[in-house]
């Protein structure tokens, strides 16, 4: 049963207290009720600081340990507002926008929250594409558009996979790859596309092992140079992605942070037709509990443009 607020008023009324937020997270984390990881007892007292105390063995379980809310000293109410804001901005959000919305004193806090929430947007190893899938790479950053020899200087190579649903596009997956070698490309495809899918690519040698890896590979052109647009869906996504990075993030995306932005874009794109923003909030909250915490080391940087 998916339980979420439909409107801003429902949201405000529902999550007005810490206790209400804690209860919501608890229901998402333990849908069948609390269960002690040590003794299996289902009886616990809710304690301060988001702790549960097992009635049978006295073991203490933290509601937020091992999630992106781990170690936060800020109220859950503020986190809930952040998640509501992030899912209700159709075009995506900047750290400055989030800082203003929440009234946070520190830009740095808003920036790190946003990055933490982005890691919760794509569930690793899940939501893999299937059916007919178009795959190609594109460069992000700089004015370089072609791909002679598929080498690049100072740019990031991003693998784009799009489900082909006839006239429509299905879901996408995006992955930054080290280079256009078979190892990098096939590795990224295996993470994002289910085996058995039909994959359409150009004739680049890096895609040749696809059949061997359990996919049905179809080559749409033999020469691996820019020519006719034979992979229209992938190229459409590439141009939408670049426009979004320019518009929402002023194109100021450091290569080391690109993965976060790709996750955010994927989340928004794959749910672009979702009429309920409340459902996006629900999904993001659920995934925020399912992904491991982001450490300070993963969040280096934080320049004012992010
Ligand atoms: Zn116990």
Q: What low-confidence regions span 5 or more consecutive residues with pLDDT below 50?
A: 143-151, 302-306
Widest β-sheet, arrangement of strands: 6-5-4-7-8
- Which class do the helix and strand fractions yield? alpha/beta
- Give the bound compounds: zinc ion
The ordered string of helix (H) and strand (E) elements is HHEEEHHHEEEHEEHHH
**How does the overall form come out from the CA principal axes?**
globular
* Largest sheet: number of strands, sense, barrel closure: 5 strands, mixed
Total helices: the number is 9
Radius of gyration, taken over Cα atoms and rounded to an integer in Å? 21 Å
Summarize the structure.
With 306 residues, the chain is α/β, with parallel strands linked by helices.
Please give the structural blueprint:
Blueprint lengths: L7 H7 L3 H12 L14 E3 L4 E4 L5 E3 L13 H13 L6 H8 L4 H13 L12 E9 L15 E10 L2 E10 L4 H11 L5 E4 L14 E4 L12 H18 L8 H13 L6 H14 L16
Parallel strand pairs: 4-7, 7-8
Antiparallel strand pairs: 1-2, 2-3, 4-5, 5-6
Helix pairs in contact: 3-9, 4-5
Zinc ion (ZN) binds next to loops.
Q: What does this 3D model show about the protein?
A:
This protein is α/β, with parallel strands linked by helices and 306 residues long. The protein is built from nine helices and eight strands. The strands form two sheets. It has a five-stranded mixed β-sheet, sandwiched between helices. A three-stranded antiparallel β-sheet has the order 1-2-3, with no helix packed on it. Residues 143-151 and 302-306 have low confidence and may be disordered. Residues 36, 38-39, 41, 54, 56-57, 59 line the site of zinc ion (ZN).
């Amino acid at each position: 049963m998916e339980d979420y607020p439909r409107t801003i008023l429902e949201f405000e009324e529902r999550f007005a207290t810490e206790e209400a937020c804690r209860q919501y997270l608890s229901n998402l984390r333990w849908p069948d009720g609390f269960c002690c990881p040590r003794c299996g007892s289902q009886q616990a007292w809710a304690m301060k600081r988001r702790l549960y105390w097992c009635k049978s063995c006295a073991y203490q379980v933290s509601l937020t340990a091992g999630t992106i809310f781990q170690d936060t000293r800020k109220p859950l109410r503020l986190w809930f507002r952040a998640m509501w804001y992030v899912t209700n901005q159709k075009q995506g959000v900047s750290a400055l926008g989030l800082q203003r919305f929440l009234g946070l004193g520190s830009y740095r806090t808003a920036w790190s929250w946003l990055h933490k929430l982005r890691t919760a947007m794509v569930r690793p190893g899940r939501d893999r594409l299937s059916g007919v899938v178009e795959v190609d790479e594109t460069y992000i950053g700089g004015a370089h558009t072609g791909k002679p020899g598929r080498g690049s200087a100072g740019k990031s190579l991003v693998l784009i996979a799009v489900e082909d649903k006839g006239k429509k596009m299905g879901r996408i997956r995006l992955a930054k790859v080290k280079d256009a070698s078979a190892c990098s490309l096939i590795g990224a495809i295996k993470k994002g596309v289910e085996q058995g899918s039909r994959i359409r690519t150009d004739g680049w040698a890096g895609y040749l092992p696809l059949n061997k890896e359990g996919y049905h590979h179809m080559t749409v052109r033999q020469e691996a140079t820019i020519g006719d647009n034979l992979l229209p869906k992938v190229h459409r996504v590439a141009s939408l992605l670049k426009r979004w990075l320019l518009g929402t993030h002023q194109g100021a995306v450091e290569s080391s942070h690109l993965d976060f932005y790709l996750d955010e874009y994927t989340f928004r794109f794959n749910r672009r037709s979702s009429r309920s923003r409340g459902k996006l909030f629900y999904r993001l909250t659920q995934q925020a509990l399912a992904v491991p915490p982001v450490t300070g080391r993963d969040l280096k940087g934080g320049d004012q443009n992010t």
